[in-house]
């Protein structure tokens, strides 16, 4: 009898493990956090940083700004979209809401991405191949939303480091924004140079109802290369602010 009970216990544990390892559909809740005090300093020149006006306004700015996103995913595709802002104050006009309300669809079957980017009261629809990130996988492991996640790093825009934490217990090669390409789902993401992080706070076993998934609106269809060119032409004289804007809008 004792051996029988032990066998049932072991089988139950194995069943739970297999179930976790092979999860391939569901939904995830993400919190994006930006250190505003450091982020706005990235966007201004030295003359502005040293002005008494800027220093005084910086004192009044809350350090952390949070916003909330959701992702619905399965083996074929993921849909990542803005849900709502947290409580945050005016960012002194710097950065505005550039691409804050992104909707990103990664189609793993066709290797295509469709992303909505709202900038300057204009809606862009990016249609392109899924970005190919050159990831380096490390030994570091941390737990995020109850899942063991391994660390990986890559570089975008030639010099901007991206740190990701992915779990192979969710067998979908996706992540927040346009990031993916790892052996599992990215549940944690950090771009130190932008003072911004994305972390999953909850992973659900079931997918979202269709009416809860935001849809992409009509807009100017464009590729990543065309978007970069359009933005580069617009912000070529904007200094640090323009450079930071380019990084943020093409995530």
Please tell me about this protein's structure.
This protein has helices at 2-21, 36-42, 46-49, 52-60, 224-235, 239-249, and strands spanning 26-35, 64-73, 77-85, 103-107, 112-119, 122-129, 136-144, 147-156, 160-167, 185-191, 196-204, 220-222. It has six helices and twelve strands. Helix 5 runs antiparallel to helix 6. Strands 7-8-9-10-11-1-2-3-4-5-6-12 form a twelve-stranded mixed β-sheet. The radius of gyration is 20 Å and the shape is globular. By secondary structure, it is an alpha+beta fold.
Oligomer: single chain
Structural class label:
alpha+beta
Q: How many distinct helices?
A: 6
Shape: globular
- Spans with pLDDT under 50 lasting ≥5 residues? 1-20, 89-93
The succession of helices and strands, N to C, reads HEHHHEEEEEEEEEEEHH
Strand order of the largest sheet: 7-8-9-10-11-1-2-3-4-5-6-12
Please outline the major beta sheet. Answer: 12 strands, mixed
Mean pLDDT: 83
Give me the Rg, rounded. 20 Å
Helical proportion? 25-40%
**What's the total count of β strands?**
12
Beginning-to-end CA distance, first to last residue? 58 Å
Amount of beta strand: 35-45%
Give the topology, please.
Layout: H1 2-21, E1 26-35, H2 36-42, H3 46-49, H4 52-60, E2 64-73, E3 77-85, E4 103-107, E5 112-119, E6 122-129, E7 136-144, E8 147-156, E9 160-167, E10 185-191, E11 196-204, E12 220-222, H5 224-235, H6 239-249
Helix pairs in contact: 5-6
Q: Which characteristics define this entry?
A:
alpha+beta, 12-stranded mixed beta sheet, 6 helices, 25% helix, globular
